[in-house]
Design a protein that fits this description.
The protein has about 2000 residues and is an alpha/beta fold. The protein has 57 helices and 50 strands. The chain has a seven-stranded parallel sheet with strand order 18-23-17-24-25-16-26. It has a six-stranded antiparallel beta barrel with strand order 10-11-14-13-12-15, surrounded by four helices. The radius of gyration is 47 Å and the shape is globular.
């Protein structure tokens, strides 16, 4: 809104300051000094957002909630920096309101705020500019500048490039500060990945407001007394979460005054909150807020002191408990923050002692425990102060626990041990204390039990790292070999050199870092399959020989990025605290350990937190008691189970029984189980700890599901609202077990863990359930509120981080332009860099796209000589060549391992791909602007059209560019930089060698990155803290889901991670599948204290737990699971004895070698023999050597791989399905070797796995490759009986194995197995292949080539099968398709098809069909000779000759002879239309007089614009309504473009893309929109002059006239001037072109030239200067002074980019902008006019007719008027449209009221009215002069015709009786209903005829003149209200009282008239036109008119 008074001040609070530039100026304040006045303005209305707050906001931009969440509707009021009323001292910057980026957001709120849409007053230090209301512009950049105004929109501020999320910083001195962005980018919304995105309330920047969002989340405000009291009634967890997520707490704790009652209450509430033990991060955050608050440091000590003088007895009575609360509070704070809180706590303790003594002396009874607790706190304080004096108390990570009496001498308590390795462990050669896992007896106690497993587990992952670091340190001190570390082979670690932290990344789990390492030594690594840097792996980084180090885990793994040496790491909390000291240049040595650290960490933390008194089942697990009790819940009286659900089918239902009663159990047959399975079921249901061993194929999963079903069907006995917990070692086993449960339980399952491959379980995943639409609505309010608040905080920190990291990312992608480094370059070096170097009178380089690029030798004119790229290097850059054939899909081992490691979907790659793509696009665009050389740019391919003349030109340029990039990439990898001392001694940077130039550049870039990293640290800490707390809230939300479940499934690692949730969930029943594969520590951390029933299912003789350290596995029994340990101590267990999988010969390999006994079920005796082989099992022995994989410890054996693949193909030819065959191998390296030999078309469906990943699976045929074969006779994994057991027990029908049996025989187990095989002739050097068709043909296959003897799976004999067609099968012998039913004979068909001996022309397998040889035949019906197929009868053939018949119309028939003549003649004839035109139409149309075709004759009328009408006669309605002119306007617009619109009176704003650009940026808007001025410093600089203005302002320096001293690439001198870009032409090389006369002085020897950047034309500078200045003098011609850009004198291209003429260009552009604003209109005026039109549409009575009669058009108008950003032209269009629609609505109303629809006389009126409406609403309607005139004429005609129709209807009888009058009316009607245009002459004729009719056919509708009407009224002498009319308008009168008492008939139309009982018939009415009465004489309305209502009360 404009303020007519100017001056004044605006209310507000908080100052805004912009960053200061090098010159001392503040961007955005350049004009502030011009006007010292203050602007006064009041903006009315409600602020959007709200929130109450003040403060000095030193930010360049305040973006409130709506910028990111456009769909949110919010309500809130208060004070704040958002859109609302407020006070603020604005110094500069821009305040962006909610609507600025998202104009669709709707918000309501009242409040006060600096810069909001609302009323405001306050000092405004901006420029005194007029205040106008501007429309919201969609897509405005975040920091776009707008003039400051009082109506709460952005003011002048820093202008950056147009990047919504990543604004490019101003190049000079404009690096962002965290404080600068404190209020910027504030977004509030729900996390998109968890539940529906709820709409949240609006809120200003800093503030407090009141309101409520749509989901019921209350707005943040200061906590009040009542709310705190209410929290005391809540659970501790809720209290902790509520307080930690509320900014109101911080406001409360920082109050200036605080009453004692409030202090009491706060202490009480905080103590309650600190009791929460599972919300650790939120409690820590809460304690951090408390310890640094004014409450803790001032009010609490003051309150403690004041307690001594308290006199109120009621309050004194509360002091004993209150003192206890204070001491508890101090204890908690001190425990969590020992270093930072020890001083405050020590002071409070001293005060407490005095207060307690004083209170005790005054009679207050102090609690007995108070003194003890206070002494304990004092002891802690003393201890910490001592440690502080020693220097060992350096951080809040210090831990102090009581010594463990069971800990060994000299060893610390395991609960105090660091999970991560320590410095002492790396540098002191001392073995840690370890206890072995006790195998034969019980543990002394639970503490030793936990200590044992903690130390062993920690040592398992620490030792490889510790030993590896020690080896590295040893090598570095004693190495003389010269072999670099990265090329050395270490056993358990991997080394990465030159590792650097690049930039922070925001993930759902917190801050991760992109890390760069040197990938060159690792080119041999196949990252897709490598176990290197897997998700969750632990890495250790050090740069000082491991004196200090950082720990991190791999957060994300992308093989493509790993190839480039990049990986994302997440650092530990201790390491994050040291990140502030890490510089971007710091180069680390990174060590990776092979252990999966995350699994270790979760379990180790769980063991440390486990209370030895709460270890479940201590009686069995620790004490090894073998007397097992029933579950506690089953020991209650009256328990009974109903097992009908698991009975065998067809058996009689059994009644419920008590499972503890042995004789009540049904037998095996009834249950459908074998003896051992039934025994296992009994044991599982009746023992509180059950162990079930299931050897291969015995159905342990089947039994486990029966147990689960029985328990779930009887869940009322044990659940008490708690779920069953199912734990499996792998995701695959978990999926299998839960799918089995889903078979009988369709609801109530929740799967927790990594990604599931099961479609069945997809909807049961925890992440899916928490993302459900209504999930969040069902959560407790405190969780919803906390989630919202913390997520908002996290988003704000992320936005700030993105701005910093985007700039960091750009600096890593290439060489930065010097503009962005100016702040970090000394003034001397900056001046030196900007000066052109001169050697021997010639400058060294030519045109410079970037000064720093030329300086570093990578500019466009520098040709570096060096070795050419080799083919290998090119291949390496372009990527690996594609494989020729598509191979089968074998899941890479890295993916398999990661799938087990990723516990939560959101943990890994949780970013939206679309969002990531957009972020990358933004960064790439920013890099284009910031980088002088972008290493990520893809070189363009040569344009074929441009390179045909010189095909080698592009290749040379491309080669040079590639070399420059290679050099830059190599230099940027280096870490060496110049020291600051060396830097100080440099005076001329151009004099440095290229090597030193790069070292100096790296120093500058180091400073640049360091500045950015420093500014990002605070935001990183905020984000990490918020992420930790948010993840804790998510766990709480997850718990809400888990508590509703019947079955919860987890992997063992997932159970360790969710251990705190499990402690809260308290499941009473736990089933562990694959329990023998789980380390005992994993199992114990899975169990909660509430567990009453544990069922372990597994087989310790198959796979065992896997330990990293072999010594721990063998000597300390770490690889022994709880399952196996309890079996070994004779704990009761059941082993399943009947195997249902393997045929007996295969099962014989397991017994007695692995299992003592194993019975075969009868079903395994019924398998068929394997086809094509002599034996169902065979082991092929060989001696071919294995090959070692370079990366890792894996191996491959190509000989075995080829044999296995050939055997698989052979079996497929035996008609086995691919799904029946599985290839197993014992090493992952063999997988890749196999895959290369298995093309997908042949082997698709065949499964290929490593043995370990196939546990629990089976298949009909197993082919096993053992791989190992070496001279050292190392068998590796094959020495482990468990793995051998799994490998040999997967096959059902056939097992075929290949390996070096001689080497394996050295292992006892293999020796026994081979002995069994040799006894049965099932081992040997060759496998015997037996042909099914020729049994005597056998092939001894010992290698892959031997299978060539059976190419089709049979033998080498031809098939020779005689087919049904008589031919012989051409294939070699094949066992498949023995009957040849699917065989297709490809020989020519020999059959004769007809009597003429014509042979079939198809292939033998194809259907012959009828003979189709063409023969000459006579067609009987017409006797024509035609080519007819042999088989066809001529009578049925359609003759193709032309028909000779004549149609009825006389035209000849054009059809063929064999087709019936058409009924419609298509011959063209001339036809005269009603409009008078003649056109050609088909004959049949010309004879149809009912339907006349549309006239296509060109209209040709000259329109008002002077152009011919483009329409035709029909389209222009016979010339009445002409189409809009389509002639292209092509006028030159002010912007220099041509107008693209069709012929218009006033050209609209230009719609072409804007071509305005400067050296800094490009305008992306359409040309007609106003361009944002560039506020970057002007780049026009030279050694002689420099411009100090901004880029968009006229320059304040003259053009330089000194010739340029640069040397062109050709060696000649530049012909340009100093400070201008060097022309590409040479005076000598391009003499003819340069000296061509244009201005006149081109051939002068000293002439200088300028080359225009827009069109590249060359001009002599003096002449061009004069040409440019023609419009500046007063004597300039009118054409020269026109507002437009100067254009090129040669080609007329507008001059938009030129530094020399920048002053003129900027002035012209400023004038053009003024014209644009004039054309587009003032936004305030547009908005006002828009509101006026909307009001008219709704309120004017004439326009209401439109709503009634043309509702669709009315609704469309109404919707269009709601549109934002309408232009003046659009409003003008809408105004015209409303005007004409109003008139059409009025005509439609007349038609409805006065014209009977069924009468044909009114049809022409209706048709013409619809034609006018159609023409008006046509999408091409532009309301040109011609169209407006046509509409006016047509609507006039329709108005006259409507009036005539109304008069005729009123006087029908008179027209019938007066023939002459009827004739006269018909003549008038003919004129009005004619199709010709309604000319002015016709209008005059019509008016004259109407004048003559006025007496004969009056307008009154009575059919009489007015004189006659008066005479009749006088004669009748009736009062008003006695005259009525019938339904057809005929008038009659009722005498007496005027009320109708009887009915009669109208004499004119026989309609019923009158009525009864003074009531008129419904369709009769009062004839107001007769006497002016509005009511009948007998009516209440008429009676009321007789009274004086005003004085009625008197």
């Amino acid at each position: 809104m404009a303020n007519p008074r100017g001056g004044g001040q605006q209310r507000g609070r908080g100052g805004f300051f912009g960053p200061q530039s090098r010159g001392g100026s503040v961007p955005g304040q350049r004009q502030a000094s011009r006007s010292p006045n203050r602007v006064r303005g009041r903006g009315g209305g409600r602020g959007e957002g709200g929130g109450r707050g003040g403060g000095d906001r030193r930010s360049g931009s305040t973006n409130s909630q709506r910028e990111r969440w456009p769909d949110e509707n919010a309500q809130g009021g208060g004070r704040g920096g958002g859109d609302g009323r407020g006070r603020g001292d604005r110094r500069s910057g821009s305040t962006h309101s909610q609507r600025e980026r998202w104009p669709d957001a709707n918000a309501q709120g009242r409040g006060r705020g600096g810069g909001g849409d609302g009323r405001g007053r306050g000092p405004w230090r901006g420029e005194n500019k007029p205040h106008v209301h501007r429309p919201v512009i969609r897509g405005r950049p975040i920091n776009a500048s707008l003039p400051l105004r009082a109506f709460g929109r952005p003011g002048y501020g820093i202008t950056h490039q147009n990047f919504a999320n990543y604004p490019v910083p101003a190049p000079v001195n404009s690096i962002y500060h965290p404080a600068d962005q404190q209020a910027s980018g504030s977004t509030q919304g729900e996390e998109p990945q968890r539940g529906r995105v709820e709409a949240m309330r609006g809120r200003g920047g800093h503030g407090r407001g009141r309101g409520r969002g749509r989901d019921g989340t209350p707005d943040v405000r200061k906590l009040g007394y009542k709310m705190l009291e209410g929290l005391l009634e809540k659970e501790a967890s809720e209290v902790a979460i509520t307080l930690s997520s509320s900014s109101g707490l911080k406001n409360l704790l920082e109050e200036d005054t605080m009453k004692s009652d409030l202090v009491l209450l706060i202490c009480q509430v905080l103590c309650k909150a600190f009791q929460s033990r599972i919300d650790r991060k939120n409690v820590l955050h809460l304690a951090r807020v408390v310890k640094d608050s004014k409450f803790f440091c001032y009010f609490l000590p003051h309150h403690v002191t004041g307690m001594m003088s308290e006199y109120q007895q009621a309050r004194r009575d509360q002091y004993p408990q209150h003192l206890s609360n204070i001491i508890s509070l101090l204890t908690d704070v001190l425990n969590m923050f020992p270093h930072s809180s020890v001083l405050s706590v020590s002071m409070l303790v001293a005060l407490l002692k005095q207060s307690i003594n004083q209170l005790r002396a005054s009679g207050v009874r102090i609690l007995d425990s108070t003194d003890e607790d206070l002494e304990r706190v004092q002891g802690l304080v003393d201890h910490l102060q001592e440690k502080s004096r020693e220097g060992t108390l350096r951080s809040d990570n210090y831990s102090f626990l009581a010594d463990d009496e069971d800990a060994p001498p000299g060893e610390e308590d395991f609960r105090r041990m660091s999970i991560y390795p320590t410095t002492e462990e790396f540098h002191h050669d001392q073995r840690p204390f370890l206890r072995p896992n006790i195998m034969s007896q019980s543990f002394p106690n639970a503490r030793i039990y936990l200590d044992t497993h903690f130390r062993l587990l920690r040592e398992d992952f620490v030792r490889p790292l510790r030993e590896g670091v020690r080896d590295i340190l040893r090598i570095q001190h004693n190495d003389n070999t010269g072999v670099p570390l990265e090329k050395r082979r270490f056993d358990d670690i991997r080394v990465y050199r030159d590792t650097r932290l690049i930039l922070p990344l925001c993930t759902s789990m917190g801050i991760a870092y992109k890390v760069q390492f040197d990938p060159r030594p690792l080119k041999f690594v196949r990252w897709e399959n490598s176990k290197r840097l897997l998700y969750g792996s632990l890495v250790c980084l050090s740069m000082d020989n491991f004196e200090t180090f950082l720990f991190a885990t791999v957060a994300d793994r992308d093989p493509k990025q790993l190839t480039q040496g990049q990986v994302n790491l997440c650092f530990s909390s201790e390491s994050r605290a040291r990140m502030a000291t890490v510089q971007p240049s710091d180069s680390f040595l990174m060590i990776e350990t092979t252990a999966y650290f995350e699994a270790y960490r979760y379990v180790l933390e769980g063991l440390q937190e486990q209370d030895e008194n709460d270890v479940p089942f201590q009686r069995y697990i620790v004490e090894c008691n073998t007397n097992v009790d029933p579950p506690a819940y089953l020991r209650e009286e009256g328990r009974s189970y109903d097992l009908s659900c698991i009975m065998a089918e067809g058996k009689e239902k059994i009644p419920p029984f008590n499972p503890l009663t042995p004789h009540a159990w049904p037998d095996e047959e009834t249950m459908g189980l074998d003896e051992s399975q039934l025994q296992a079921l009994k044991l599982a249901l009746t023992n509180e700890l059950t162990i079930i061993q299931g050897p291969p194929g015995t159905g342990k999963t089947h039994v486990g599901l029966k147990i689960a079903q029985a328990l779930l069907e009887n869940h009322q006995a044990w659940s008490h609202g708690r779920p069953m917990l199912v734990v499996c070692y792998t995701n695959h086993a978990l999926d299998q077990f839960l799918e089995g449960i889903h078979g009988f339980l369709k609801k109530g399952i929740v799967r927790v863990g990594g990604r599931s491959n099961s479609e069945t379980l997809k909807s049961f995943g925890l992440r899916e359930l928490t993302r459900a639409q209504n999930f969040r609505k069902g959560l407790p309010q405190h969780l919803r509120k906390a989630h919202h608040e913390i997520y908002t905080e996290m988003e704000a920190a992320e936005e700030l981080l993105k701005r910093q990291t985007a700039q960091l990312e750009c600096s890593l992608r290439g060489v930065l332009k010097e503009d962005f480094l100016e702040r970090f370059i000394s003034d001397q070096h900056w001046d030196s860099l900007c000066l052109q170097p001169v050697f021997d009178g010639f400058e060294s380089v030519g045109k410079k796209p970037s000064m720093i690029a030329e300086w570093l030798g990578i500019g466009s004119n520098v040709f570096l000589l060096g070795p050419q790229l080799t083919g290998a290097e090119v291949a390496d850059e372009n990527g690996a060549p594609l494989e020729d054939e598509e191979l089968i899909d074998i899941e890479e081992e890295a993916d398999l391992i990661q799938r087990e490691r990723i516990l939560v979907d959101g943990d890994h790659r949780d970013k939206d791909h679309q969002k990531l793509k957009q972020e990358e696009k933004n960064i790439a665009a920013m890099a284009d602007l910031m980088l002088a050389l972008n290493l990520n740019d893809i070189e363009p391919q040569p344009d074929q059209g441009h390179n045909q003349t010189n095909p080698e030109e592009w290749q040379v340029q491309g080669h040079q560019k590639k070399k420059r990039k290679q050099m830059a990439r190599k230099e940027l990898r280096k870490t060496s930089v110049l020291s600051e001392d060396q830097e100080k001694h440099i005076s001329d940077v151009w004099s440095l060698s290229l090597k030193d130039r790069w070292r100096l550049y790296r120093l500058w870039i180091l400073r640049y990155r360091t500045a950015l990293r420093t500014k990002a640290l605070e935001a990183e800490q905020v984000y990490q803290d918020a992420a930790d707390r948010l993840n804790e809230i998510r766990r709480r939300e997850d718990l809400c889901v888990l508590q509703q479940a019947l079955v919860v499934g987890m992997t063992t690692t997932g159970a360790a991670k969710y251990r705190q949730a499990l402690q809260e969930l308290r499941p009473r029943l736990v089933i562990v599948e694959e329990a023998a594969e789980v380390l005992e520590a994993h199992t114990i951390t899975t169990l909660s204290q509430a567990c009453q029933h544990l069922i372990l299912i597994g087989d310790h003789q198959q796979l065992r737990p896997s330990a990293t350290v072999y010594d721990l596995a063998k000597n300390f029994n770490l690889e022994v699971s709880m399952f196996e340990r309890l079996v070994r101590v004779n704990f009761p267990y059941v082993r399943l004895n009947y195997q249902h999988r393997m045929r007996p010969c295969i099962a014989r390999l397991l017994t007695p070698h692995i299992y003592e006994t194993l019975e075969n079920h009868p079903s395994v005796l019924e398998y068929d023999n394997v086809k094509g082989l002599l034996t169902n099992m065979f082991f092929v022995e060989h001696s071919q050597r294995e090959e070692e994989i370079k990366d890792g410890r894996s191996h491959q054996n190509p000989h075995e791989a080829e044999f296995v693949v050939k055997l698989c193909h052979y079996l497929l030819n035996q008609e086995y399905k691919p799904s029946q065959i599985t290839i197993l191998t014992t090493y992952t390296g063999q997988l890749h070797c196999l895959r290369k030999l298995m093309p997908s078309p042949t082997f698709s469906g065949v499964k290929v796995h490593v043995v370990d990943k196939y546990q629990g699976e089976e298949n009909d045929i197993i082919i096993l490759s053992l791989v190992r074969s070496n001279s050292q006779r190392r068998v590796g994994f094959l020495n482990i009986s468990n793995r051998v057991c799994v490998a040999l027990s997967r096959a059902k029908m056939g097992l075929y194995c290949i390996g070096n049996m001689d080497m394996l025989s050295s292992v006892t187990l293999w020796s026994n197995i081979l002995n069994t095989l040799r006894e049965n002739g099932q081992v040997g050097p060759a496998l015997t292949l037996s042909c099914q068709n020729h049994p005597d043909k056998q092939i001894q296959a010992s290698c892959g080539n031997d299978f060539k003897g059976a190419p089709e799976g049979g033998c080498d004999q031809p098939c020779q099968y005689r087919l049904d067609c008589g031919h012989v099968c051409t294939r070699m012998c094949h066992p498949y398709d023995a009957e040849h039913k699917n065989y297709k004979c490809m020989k020519d068909c020999p059959k004769v098809l007809c009597e003429l001996n014509h042979k079939c022309t198809k292939r033998c397998y194809q259907e012959c069909g009828k003979c189709r040889i063409l023969l000459d035949k006579i067609i009987p019906s017409c006797q024509h000779n035609q080519k007819v197929p042999c088989h066809q009868d001529p009578e049925t053939f359609e003759c193709k000759e032309r028909c000779q018949k004549t149609l009825q119309c006389g035209h000849p028939c054009k059809a063929t002879c064999g087709v019936s003549c058409p009924s419609q003649c298509m011959a063209g004839v001339q036809m005269q239309l009603k409009c008078g035109h003649i056109q050609e139409e088909p004959c049949y149309i010309s004879r149809d007089h009912k339907k006349e075709p549309n006239c296509r004759t060109k209209c040709g009328t000259t329109l008002k614009c002077g152009h011919a009408c483009p329409g035709n006669c029909h389209g222009c309605y016979q010339g009445r309504l002409h189409r809009g002119c389509t002639h292209k306007c092509q006028k030159a617009l002010v912007c220099s473009h041509q107008c693209r619109e069709p012929c218009v009176r006033d050209c609209p704003p230009c719609s072409s893309p804007c071509e305005n650009r400067c050296i800094h940026s490009i305008c992306k808007k359409s040309c007609g929109q106003s361009c944002a001025p560039c506020n970057e410093p002007c780049e026009w600089q030279c050694p002689h002059y420099s411009c100090t203005k901004l880029c968009h302002e006229p320059c304040d320096r003259p053009p330089c006239l000194v010739p340029c001293n640069n040397t062109l690439p050709c060696g000649h001198r530049c012909i340009g001037l100093c400070g201008d870009p060097c022309p590409k032409k040479c005076r000598i090389c391009d003499k003819d072109e340069v000296t061509e006369i244009f201005f006149g002085d081109e051939d002068e020897p000293d002439a200088c030239f300028i080359q225009l950047e827009d069109c590249k034309h060359l001009f002599e500078t003096k002449g061009m200067d004069q040409y440019i200045g023609l419009d500046e003098g007063q004597g300039a011609e009118l054409d020269q002074r026109a507002i437009r850009l100067k254009d090129c004198p040669r080609c007329r291209t507008p001059i938009r980019r030129n530094l020399r003429y920048g002053t003129h260009i900027n002035r012209s552009l400023a004038a053009i902008e003024m014209v644009k604003k004039k054309i587009n209109g003032e936004p305030a005026i547009i908005k006002q006019q828009q509101e006026v039109l909307s009001l008219q549409l709704l309120e004017q009575s004439n326009l209401r007719n439109m709503r009634k009669h043309i509702p669709e058009e009315f609704a469309s108008l109404q919707e269009t008027l709601k549109t934002k950003d309408l232009s003046l032209q659009q409003l003008w269009h809408l105004e015209n449209l409303m005007s004409f629609l109003e008139r059409i609505g009025k005509l439609k109303e007349m038609r409805i009221e006065h014209m009977t629809p069924l009468l044909g006389i009114y049809k022409p009126f209706s048709l013409k009215l619809e034609e006018a409406l159609t023409f008006l609403l046509d999408r091409t309607q532009r309301f040109s002069d011609q169209q407006v005139a046509d509409l006016e004429r047509e609507l006039k005609r329709l108005s006259y015709l409507a009036e005539l129709n109304v008069r005729c209807k009123m006087s029908q009888l008179k027209l019938q009786m007066n023939v002459a009058l009827g004739t006269e009316v018909q003549q008038l009607r003919d004129i009005l209903e004619d199709t010709l245009p309604f000319s002015e002459g016709l209008e005059r004729t019509v008016k004259k005829m109407f004048t003559e009719l006025d007496t004969k056919l009056p307008r009154s509708g009575l059919g009489i003149t007015d004189e006659e009407r008066v005479m009749i009224l006088k004669a009748m002498e009736l009062n008003k209200g006695h005259w009525y009319k019938c339904p057809n308008g005929h008038v009659y009168a009722i005498g007496d009282c005027g009320g109708a008492m009887e009915e009669s008939k109208c004499p004119d139309c026989s309609a019923t008239i009158g009525g009864a009982n003074h009531n008129l018939i419904q369709d009769n009415a009062v004839a107001s036109e007769m006497d002016g009465a509005q009511h009948a004489a007998w009516s209440d309305a008429a009676n009321m008119a007789n009274f004086d209502l005003i004085n009625f009360g008197d």
